[in-house]
């Protein structure tokens, strides 16, 4: 399970050290951080299999294409081994699909030149079904490595319906990513995910493992996670 997790934290240098130590201890796939601490975390993770992942245009995506590509390139120069970027949700809501495609092309080009992975975050909680489908079809043409539902900072997380829409329309992409994020307020937890929990499962952790066993049907291969490390510890 852990190898599919992108472990996230955005705070002080001491917190980044803790983040990296946890990622190594539990064998997470990557650490997901803003671009400033990329070089710091890359040094902390030296000698491990954990990737240093950068979040570009995070969390709102409301930057120019030039600004996002510069941030992505800077992260690459600092040692990022993959990056996520948040597409311009406002432009997508305006149905300026040409802009979304050009943005995706330029960000994907940065990753291709560096030989690393590019992941595109849609922030589906703000989108209609039509907009999700169009963004996925653009991704099918541009071919980033992953498309993702959510930042975890929006009004909702992933839903099976949105993941299916993405997967059905993204063509040959390897996967659609799903975001499972924990909120302190139960009402803000991804409600559609919670509704899926079968009565026979004792907890979210058991549901999560059941979902993982079935995830290939949805095309889910990477799972960004902000829930506590103690959950992973309990799963061992």
Task: Summarize the topology.
Elements: E1 5-8, H1 13-26, E2 30-34, H2 38-44, E3 51-56, H3 65-77, E4 82-86, H4 89-93, H5 97-114, E5 117-121, H6 129-142, E6 146-148, H7 160-169, E7 175-177, H8 191-195, H9 204-214, E8 223-225, H10 229-235
Parallel strand pairs: 1-2, 1-8, 2-3, 3-4, 4-5, 5-6, 6-7
Helix pairs in contact: 3-5, 5-6, 6-7
Question: In words, what does this structure look like?
Answer:
This protein has 236 residues and is of the alpha/beta class. It has a single domain, classed as Alpha-Beta Barrel (TIM Barrel), CATH 3.20.20. Helix content is 44%, strand content 14%. Helix 2 links the parallel strand 2 and strand 3. Helix 3 runs parallel beside helix 5, helix 5 packs parallel to helix 6 and helix 6 packs parallel to helix 7. The longest helix is centred in the middle third of the chain and has 18 residues. The radius of gyration is 17 Å and the shape is globular. The N terminus and C terminus are likely disordered.
Tags for this entry?
236 residues, alpha/beta, TIM Barrel, 8-stranded parallel beta sheet, 8 strands, disordered N terminus, disordered C terminus
């Amino acid at each position: 399970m852990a190898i599919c997790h992108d472990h996230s934290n955005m705070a002080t240098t001491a917190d980044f050290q803790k983040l990296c130590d946890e990622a190594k201890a539990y064998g997470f796939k990557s650490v997901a951080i803003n671009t400033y601490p990329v070089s710091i975390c890359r040094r902390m993770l030296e000698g491990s299999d954990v990737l240093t992942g950068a979040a570009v245009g995070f969390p709102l995506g409301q930057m120019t294409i030039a600004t996002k590509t510069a941030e992505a390139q800077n992260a690459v120069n600092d040692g990022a081994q993959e990056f996520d970027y948040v597409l311009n949700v406002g432009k997508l809501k305006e149905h300026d699909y040409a802009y979304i495609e050009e943005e995706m092309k330029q960000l994907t080009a940065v990753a291709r030149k560096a030989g690393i992975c590019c992941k595109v975050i849609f922030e589906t909680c703000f989108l209609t079904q039509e907009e999700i489908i169009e963004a996925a079809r653009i991704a099918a043409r541009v071919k980033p490595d992953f498309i993702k539902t959510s930042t975890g900072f929006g009004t909702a997380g992933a839903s099976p319906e949105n993941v299916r829409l993405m997967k059905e329309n993204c063509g040959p992409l390897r996967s659609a990513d799903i975001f499972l994020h924990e909120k302190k307020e139960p009402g803000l937890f991804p409600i559609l995910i919670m509704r899926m929990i079968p009565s026979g499962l004792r907890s979210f952790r058991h549901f999560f493992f059941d979902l993982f066993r079935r995830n290939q049907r949805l095309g889910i291969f990477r799972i960004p996670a902000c829930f506590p490390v103690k959950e992973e510890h309990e799963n061992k």
